[in-house]
Design brief:
Blueprint: H1 7-45
C-alpha cells in the first residue's frame, strides 16, 4: 500500500452529496411554486374574483 490518504475521494463525494441536496431543495421549491401558480390560475379561470391567498397573522 502507498500510505496516501484518500480524503480527496471523500471530499468529492461530500461535494456531490451537498450538490444533490441543493438540487432536491430547489426541485421542491419549484414544485411548490408551480402548484401555487396552477391553483391561482384554476381559481381565476373558474370566474372567481376573490382568489387572493389569505395568510393568517402570527
Amino acid at each position: 500500500m502507498s500510505g496516501q490518504d484518500d480524503s480527496g475521494g471523500r471530499g468529492g463525494a461530500i461535494a456531490a452529496l451537498v450538490f444533490a441536496a441543493i438540487m432536491v431543495g430547489f426541485g421542491l421549491w419549484l414544485a411548490h411554486s408551480l402548484t401555487t401558480a396552477s391553483r391561482m390560475q384554476d381559481c381565476l379561470m373558474s370566474g372567481r374574483t376573490n382568489c387572493n391567498v389569505i395568510v393568517p397573522e402570527r
